[in-house]
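Q&A FORM
Asked by: J.P.
Topic: structure of SNF family Na+-dependent transporter

PROVIDED:
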Amino acid sequence: MNEKKKGSNFSGQLGFVLAAAGSAVGVGNLWRFPYLAAKDGGGLFLIIYLILVLTFGFTLLTSDIAIGRKTKKSAIYAYTEMNKKFKFLGILTFFVPVLIMTYYAVIGGWITRYAVVYFTGEAKAAAADDFFVSFITSPVAPVIYGLLFMFVTTVIIYKGVEGGIERISRWLMPVLLVMIVVIAVFSLTITHKDADGTVRTGLQGLLVYLKPDLTGLTPGRFLQILLDAMSQIFFSLSVSMGIMITYGSYVKPDVNLGKSINQIEIFDTLVAFLAGMMIIPAVFAFTGTEGMSAGPSLMFVSLPKVFQAMGTPGIFVGAVFFLMAIFATLTSCISVLEAIVANIMAIFHADRKKVTLIMGAVYLIATAVIALGYSIFYVEVKLPNGSTGQLLDIMDYISNSFMMPFISMISTILIGWIVGPKWIIDEMESTGDKFRRKYVYIVMIKYVAPIMMFILFLQSTGILGMFIK
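REPLIED BY: S.T.
REPLY: Here is the structure written out as tokens.
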């Protein structure tokens, strides 16, 4: 199973970095990162996040990519090769993208619907209070858009690694970055005057975003911010879900992994920071801090109101924003389906095209079911973290909040204490290049990351919440 078929590799370092960055830069960067920054003390969250990216995130990303290239296998068999007793870890890792894929195209469909609204001159409708709820509770529209998004994802995976994933990433990622920069700069130029005469500007919003807010900071509050930043890293870097192991298995032996990982970190963190600079100043200028609400409502409720308040320029900005969001979601969706297809190809020794067609059909059905989770299949389930969720929220909780911290915890123990950090370090230095953050990696993988993951796992189960007030 070590042999890769022709075309099942990235052409080189640039292709790999853009594809990996495309996987990392997803919808979580566009609405979850800005929301957390606004909620968790602005610049305080940014500082903590940056430190964690360079230590904790770097450790998990390095592990996944190095495991993939060294074993030349996707997750389900990569962990088995490291230690046969840890085959279960590969199986658990495989099921993370299996669950995520059930709903990711649904979110992509939501974003596509908003893009269509802005490009067809219906922008005013998107700003209505009930637009988002009316759309997702419809038994038809969200299904159609979700299926369309899933179909496009399947076509790209069908075309393979270099011809599909790399080709689309090489085109989309530079365009995505330019769009984010343009909107971020525009957000800083905004000035808005309320009916009562209060004037707010985008530059004031930038200060809210960048300035560390220590108001009401307690040890428990600080720990919560730390945990929020840690959980965001899973979204931001696509770690502990088998994706980077799969992508790592497509990297050629002569590629400098250390340099590639640095570039992925920089690209992803830059996009996340720019997303905050793009969204927070604009929302602040028009709504103050009230518009920075949690979850999908930031992207699908608050921002359309901001675009509407901008007048004519808002139609253009909204169109560009949601087109950009489509690109970000598509590259992530591609990576999730690729991780599934790669594992199934390995399990059944099957052809890519056949597996892709079968899994595409399976997830077209799953997408339709989850899309109907707010209408025909509506349920309300109390989750262990205290929140109430529908079908989409349930899948998201199991995969992102429960399984990923658990997988990270076990994998850090496996690498740090059983196979040893040298197993990873040897691969990082296999091209003759120096692994510059080797000692950071050793300390993190052996001592810090397992403890951090254990704490995050306790938080996801709701146990930690009993002690953090």
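FOLLOW-UP: The chain has one domain: 13-371.
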